[in-house]
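stage 2 :: seqdesign
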């Protein structure tokens, strides 16, 4: 059961309405932070929140990424996925979150240390970082503004769905036993691309979480070159009663002659996400290495001039500028 700030009759009415599905987006109440309700992510005011934003490389470009938050907010993004690693200090993470709050951005903090790993112990290492008292305090104090993405793309193409489930059960337990209250975001396997473990075991993980507060994430690269899969996989997750976002996505660069073999249709990603009320976070603001530079949304020379990719993400009819809404907690 979630920690609601209700008293007396109002608490009873809320819980009754919630149990029979009568609450709607306009319902006014106060919760401690973000939470999932069915396949919707809701903010602390009980309003649906649909992420529209980008990934920002704070772990690798501390000063530049911090300064870029102003430019990111100016694009009308409502969310920034903070690329972070376990060597990052709690103090600096707190400063980044505070600046994001000042700019009315929601933060999704993710750890990039174990990308592509199948080692369950390493996944739990990520959970233990977030469970550290200093880090946990910052996250918990900001649960109205911050979600916790345990690990970026843990699990490669060969990881069994059941192994994904079991490892995440352990990580969830580590976080909740430490008292972390925030919504937890969990990437699919297959370097974030596979929806199969989410469809198979997402509901089981949701029940395993004592707060029943999990948001799932798929990353759309070459596994989604078939455009029909974009909407069908997102819908299949929703049909399981789960909440999902597109935590990263790319596009058709150089007719697929790129290091990721990607011919993803980004217009379809944004169209399907908008139609289904699903959040998306494009990869990435800038600073990618040479083989991934095609995924820079702005030029790395100045950290603000839009590239062709950035123009697509921000200015398409279903892009960020036309569909983003600031979280009602602001």
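stage 2 :: out
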């Amino acid at each position: 059961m979630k920690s609601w700030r209700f008293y007396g009759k109002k608490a009873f009415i809320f819980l009754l309405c919630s149990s029979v599905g009568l609450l709607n987006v306009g319902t006014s109440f106060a919760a401690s932070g973000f939470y999932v309700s069915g396949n919707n992510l809701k903010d602390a005011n009980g309003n649906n929140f649909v992420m529209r934003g980008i990934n920002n490389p704070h772990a690798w470009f501390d000063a530049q990424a911090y300064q870029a938050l102003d430019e990111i907010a100016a694009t009308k993004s409502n969310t920034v996925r903070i690329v972070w690693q376990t060597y990052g200090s709690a103090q600096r993470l707190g400063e980044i979150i505070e600046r994001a709050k000042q700019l009315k951005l929601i933060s999704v903090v993710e750890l990039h240390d174990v990308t592509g790993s199948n080692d369950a112990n390493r996944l739990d290492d990520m959970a233990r970082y977030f469970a550290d008292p200093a880090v946990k305090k910052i996250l918990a104090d900001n649960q109205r503004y911050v979600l916790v993405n345990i690990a970026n793309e843990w699990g490669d193409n060969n990881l069994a769905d059941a192994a994904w489930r079991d490892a995440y059960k352990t990580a969830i337990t580590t976080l909740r036993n430490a008292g972390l209250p925030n919504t937890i975001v969990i990437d699919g396997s297959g370097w974030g691309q596979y929806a199969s473990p989410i469809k198979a075991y997402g509901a089981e993980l949701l029940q395993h979480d004592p707060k029943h507060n999990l948001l799932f994430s798929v990353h759309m690269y070459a596994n989604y070159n078939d455009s029909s899969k974009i909407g069908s996989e997102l819908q299949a997750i929703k049909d399981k009663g789960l909440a999902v976002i597109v935590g990263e996505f790319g596009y058709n660069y150089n007719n697929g002659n790129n290091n990721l073999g990607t011919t993803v249709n980004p217009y379809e990603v944004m169209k399907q996400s908008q139609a289904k009320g699903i959040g998306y976070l494009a990869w990435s603001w800038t600073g990618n290495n040479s083989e991934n530079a095609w995924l820079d949304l702005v030029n790395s020379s100045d950290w603000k001039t839009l590239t062709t990719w950035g123009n697509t993400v921000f200015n398409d009819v279903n892009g960020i500028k036309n569909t983003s809404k600031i979280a009602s907690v602001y």
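stage 3 :: structure notes
- Residues 299 and 305 are 5 Å apart (CA to CA).
- The mean pLDDT is 93.
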